[in-house]
Amino acid sequence: MIQVSAKLLTWLQGNVSFTSDCCKLPLLSLWLLTNEILLLTANTFPLICRFTNALAGQSANDMIQRTSGRLDTLHSEGIHRLSDITCSAVSQLLMLGKSIIAHANKLPKEDAEEDVIKVDWPEDSVDRAKLIREKAQTMAGYVEAVSNSFITGIADVAEAYLAAIKGTTTAADSREDLPKKSIEEKAKTFAQLLRSDHITAVGKIRDGLQYLSYVIISTSMPAAAAA
After folding, report:
1. DSSP codes joined into one string, 73-115
2. Of 7-21, 51-65, 130-144, 190-204, highest mean pLDDT
3. What Cα–Cα distance (Å) separates residue 98 from each residue in 89, 94, 142, 193, 216?
4. Is the pLDDT of residue 31 over 70?
5. Other C-beta atoms within 10 Å of 93: how many?
6. pLDDT tier at 210 (50, 70, 90 boundaries)?
């Protein structure tokens, strides 16, 4: 058996344990999950329009409270969705690693684990590495798309607030009554946090890709050298 597989599986299993049942999703589920999330966020434009209308006629403080709540919701949902998509990506790296090991060990179908996916792996190790790299790049692209969609949503909410707040300041809504932290600052902070989460998510995918490279190298060695 390939010795490096234990290190790979230990690392990957440790990194998928921080999320939910999405780790059990099959291959291609990442694409489906990403599209589901993007479809949800694509529907935010009409929601933003309704949100803008809901702010009309409200006092400045009411606008701030409504907008702050909407930003909190978008930020929380963005974190949750990024966690889901990262979990799915890392779990697929785990399945790819198991598949490479099973292919190298030439395990009979009945001896392979249930979650080992069937992949028509090229015999050349360089081609296998290219195939996995392409999959990892696709995963990273999905993560970026999800992150950007929520960052855009946060920016749209902030813009809707700024458009609605103009000309509404009255004696009752003086600047002294407004929170110290403005909506603009809050939106900027949330956007920065999501960008940071995006970087962390891509980092996990890259780490998994690095460990998979060890598996590819080890499974390419002759049996005597691997032992």
Report:
1. HHHHHHHHHHHHHHHHHHHHHHHHHHHHHHHHHT--GGGS-TT
2. 190-204
3. 15, 6, 23, 33, 11
4. no
5. 25
6. confident
SS3 48: helix
- Token pair for 78: 């963005």
Distances (CA, A) of 17 to 83, 146, 161: 11, 21, 39
Tokens of 84: 């889901």
Tokens of 51: 């949100």
Answer with the residue of higher pLDDT: 112 or 204. 204
Task: Give the pair of three-digit tokens for residue 177.
Answer: 């009554």
Lowest average pLDDT, out of 71-80, 107-116, 200-209, goes to 107-116
User: Look-up: residue for tokens 């960052």?
Assistant: 151
Q: What is the largest CA-CA distance in the chain?
A: 84
Check if the beta carbon of residue 185 is closer than 8 Å to that of residue 149: no
